[in-house]
Amino acid sequence: MLGLPPTASRADVMNSWRQLLLKVHPDKSDAEDATERTQQLNMAKEHALAQIVERDAFEAALAAQRAAHAAYMAILEKARKREIERTREMRQRLADREKFMGPIRDAYFKRKDAMRATMKNGKMYK
């Protein structure tokens, strides 16, 4: 009835209401249904203002939800980066250990193989 888009602001609603009210008010208009139209116009204004309040509340809740989601995604990204760094460190430790233990292990198995080669039935022989 006010002829406003769904995104109209409170000021738009009030300006439209005032302009229409000047046209249909019983003191300004000679129409028989002026009182009824004024009441309808007032109801339309109240309804439009209530929708603006609902829309503002919805947008505030949506903004809060988006902020919470962004914070959650930031936490996940930080945890992912921490896990990647931890994996890198673990791989580096394993590589360092292999550099250190590789020759020792090789010498151990070489000696063990040499001892097996000199054994017969579990006993040393000459």
Provide a concise account of the structure shown.
With 126 residues, the protein is mainly alpha-helical.
Describe what you observe in this structure.
It contains 2 helices and 2 strands, in the order ααββ. It has one domain (about 10-100). The N and C termini lie far apart (about 115 Å). About 80% of the residues lie in helices and about 5% in strands. A hairpin with a 2-residue loop joins strand 1 and strand 2 (about 125). The chain is mainly alpha-helical. It has helices at about 10-25, 35-115, and strands spanning about 120, 125. The mean pLDDT is about 85. Helix 1 packs antiparallel against helix 2 (about 35-115).
Low-confidence stretches: none
Number of helices, counting only DSSP H or I runs of 4 residues or more: 2
- Proportion of residues in β-strands: under 5%
Radius of gyration: 42 Å
Reported for the largest beta sheet, the result is: 2 strands, antiparallel
Task: Count every beta strand, where a strand is a DSSP E run of 2 or more residues.
Answer: 2
| Residues in helices, as a percent range | over 70%
**Structural class by secondary-structure content:** mainly alpha
- Which word captures the global form? rod-shaped
As for the number of domains, it is 1
Distance between the termini: 114 Å
N to C succession of SSEs: HHEE
Nearest-integer average pLDDT: 87
Spatial ordering of strands, largest sheet: 1-2
